[in-house]
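[09:14] KT: can someone run the structure on this one? pasting the chain below
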Amino acid sequence: MNKQTKKGFTLVELLMVLAVVGLLASILIPTAGSIRESALKTICKAQLSQYINAIVQFKSQYGYYPFAQGNKDYVINLSDPEVSKQFIEIMSGRDAQTGKPASVGGNRKRIAFHDFSENEFYILEDDLYSLTQLADRFNNPNIFIMIDGDGDGFIYPKPSLTSPAKPRAKIRGSITAWVESDDLDRFPGYALWEN
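[09:31] RB: done, structure tokens below
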């Protein structure tokens, strides 16, 4: 008598494979999410550095910083829509809405210190871009830039929310920037003074 056996997986073997795949997915998915967030933070910090470079170029061209407020350190609050619009126009030398050359905020020569891409604008609920409001890659508009207005070579940023943390001491430098998390912590906070 010749008994034929069918080759295949038993139910127990299939369940074991599914359990292993589920275990691996539960380990890898959060790791991939944190890697993605870390990569986005790196891109966002590069964006902040570009803003700082544009401000330094403005100062080398005109001899003063944009938004100058006398002889004291000051913060450019880009979460304010009007300030954000002015910043875009000053740094690009163009009207934020029409794109036509404009002499705004002391940029009388209409020099393009920075060309803003659509990745830098706030995305509205209808998936359109706000051409007057900046945001990071997380779509967080809470961007702040601090400038050493008194010229002592030090700045001491004081973020208002818990993230990012305040630096432990004054920072030696003339400009720094940070992005604060929102009230609901949907967006991460980070700063250029952090590693």
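[09:33] KT: thanks! The two ends are 74 Å apart (CA to CA).
[09:34] RB: yep, looked fine to me
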